[in-house]
Amino acid sequence: MIKDLEAARNVLAVDLRHLLSALGPRALASEWRVREVWAEGDAKPQLEAFDGSELIAGQRLAALAQDVSQIIDGEFSAFESGQAAPWVIVEAVDSTYYAVRSDDPSVLAQVRSAFQDVTDYEHPVA
């Protein structure tokens, strides 16, 4: 769970663009399933239109992420070419934190090294 805060305003200082950058070239080369997004900013209509039924290029997602002021909620799953399972899932949760899930410990290590307030988080079972 990533909860880096902007000290002066006590708001989340991390957004999707920061996470994509932290995940590096692999994120840009992946295809992403985007769903249940609530965002603010110029790219809001495009991001909120995705319903998870299609994959978009990592480069396109990165460009859209640059054109929002905030991702309030959303789920972003990255797939490498030919793979059925995502290598990382990034969840924006209520403007409060980002959850990053991956079976690859090196991915989680990358995220840990890029941000300050990172803790383990067990996704609740519904």
Would you report the number of β strands? 7
Question: Helical element count?
Answer: 5
Spatial gap, N to C terminus: 18 Å
Largest sheet: 5 strands, antiparallel
Which geometry do the CA atoms define?
globular
* Spatial sequence of strands, sheet with the most strands: 4-3-5-6-7
Contiguous runs where pLDDT drops below 50 for at least 5 residues: 1-6
In sequence order, what are the helices and strands, one letter per element? EEHHEHEHEEEH
Structural class: alpha+beta
SS strand fraction: 25-35%
- Average residue-wise pLDDT: 86
Radius of gyration: 14 Å
Helix content: 25-40%
Protein model, in words:
This protein has 126 residues and is α+β, with helices and mostly antiparallel strands. It is 30% helix and 30% strand. The strands form two sheets. A five-stranded antiparallel sheet has the order 4-3-5-6-7. A two-stranded antiparallel sheet has the order 1-2. A hairpin with a 3-residue loop joins strand 6 and strand 7. The two termini are 18 Å apart. The model is unreliable at 1-6 (pLDDT under 50).
Keywords for this entry:
single chain; 126 residues; alpha+beta; five-stranded antiparallel β-sheet; two-stranded antiparallel sheet; 7 strands; 30% strand; globular
What's this entry about, in short?
With 126 residues, the chain is α+β, with helices and mostly antiparallel strands. It contains 5 helices and 7 strands, in the order ββααβαβαβββα. The N terminus is likely disordered.
